Amino acid sequence: MISAIASASVAVWLMGAGELAQQPARADRHPIISEVLFNVPSDPRDPLVGDANLDGNRDAIGDEFVELFNPHDVPIQLAGYTIVDGHPPERNRWRFTFPPFELAPGDVVVVFNGLQQSWRVPPGDERRGPRGRDDRLDTWVFTTRNTNRAVGLANAGDWVLLSAPNGAMLECVVWGEPGAPTPTGVASLFEVPSPRGGSVQRTPDLSTFEVHPTVDEPPRGQGRASARGVPYSPGRHPG
Ligand SMILES: [Ca+2]
Ligand SMILES: [Ca+2]
């Protein structure tokens, strides 16, 4: 990804400013995976720890999510990008293909598993984008509309693969001992730590992933501060 940005900068440098204004969005400017919550945390003293989408229902499958970030200075059209996981068997794989949706520079989208989750602002799915920004998370939210408890990211080991609309495998995040072979031919492969509960997120320099630190959860109601510390941050990019 860093090299993609560098080469894009060189291209900009080689072109005159007038030419730059005529350039369409470049095909090599892809979103990046900025966070994966595969191990939804729990706390016997606080049933809302792990309720990543803030709907009041902590679900070990439904609250799982993959967050994407646009680190470039131009919008990215997400139509046709796919996210899949590697947890066998094939029929139980996590699969999501984006519908038409433009991701602004510096913005993020979050794709939740969605099992038994509820929303106030209708989220996007594979057919259409979200009706608006999610009011609880202040971000763009999609759901896979999963209804099968067997479809989830395996805590003990799995991977998440982001592919471009043309099928090019862009990024793969791998943890633990996956039950399926890790894909070969991926442009960027990251072997990440396996927190006991909580997500992994991109480091601020975007070069690799780290265990998500504990951060303040967004307030759950207007005017109510949240004192809850949580190890995930759907909708907030690193750095
Ligand atoms: Ca939830
Ligand atoms: Ca985040």
Describe the protein in words:
With 239 residues, the protein is mainly beta. The chain has a single domain, classed as Immunoglobulin-like (Sandwich). Helix content is 8%, strand content 27%. The strands form four sheets. It has a six-stranded mixed sheet, with no helix packed on it. The longest helix has 13 residues. It is globular. Bound molecules: calcium ion (2 copies). The site of one calcium ion has 8 residues, from β1.
Secondary-structure map:
Layout: H1 2-14, H2 17-22, E1 32-39, E2 65-69, E3 76-77, E4 82-85, E5 95-97, E6 102-103, E7 108-112, E8 140-143, E9 157-163, E10 169-176, E11 188-191, E12 198-202, E13 209-211, E14 215-216, E15 229-230
Parallel strand pairs: 7-8, 10-11
Antiparallel strand pairs: 1-2, 1-12, 2-7, 3-6, 4-5, 4-9, 9-10, 12-13, 14-15
Bound molecules: calcium ion (CA) (2 copies).
What's the total number of strands? 15
Give the topology string: H per helix, E per strand: HHEEEEEEEEEEEEEEE
Distance between the termini: 16 Å
List low-confidence stretches. Answer: 1-25
Task: Indicate the mean pLDDT.
Answer: 88
According to CATH, what is the class?
Answer: Mainly Beta
Largest β-sheet summary: 6 strands, mixed
Structural class: mainly beta
CATH superfamily: Lamin Tail domain
Output the CATH topology.
Immunoglobulin-like
Ligand inventory reads: calcium ion
* Count of all domains: 1
Helix content: under 10%
Total helical elements: 2
CATH architecture: Sandwich
| Percent in strands | 25-35%
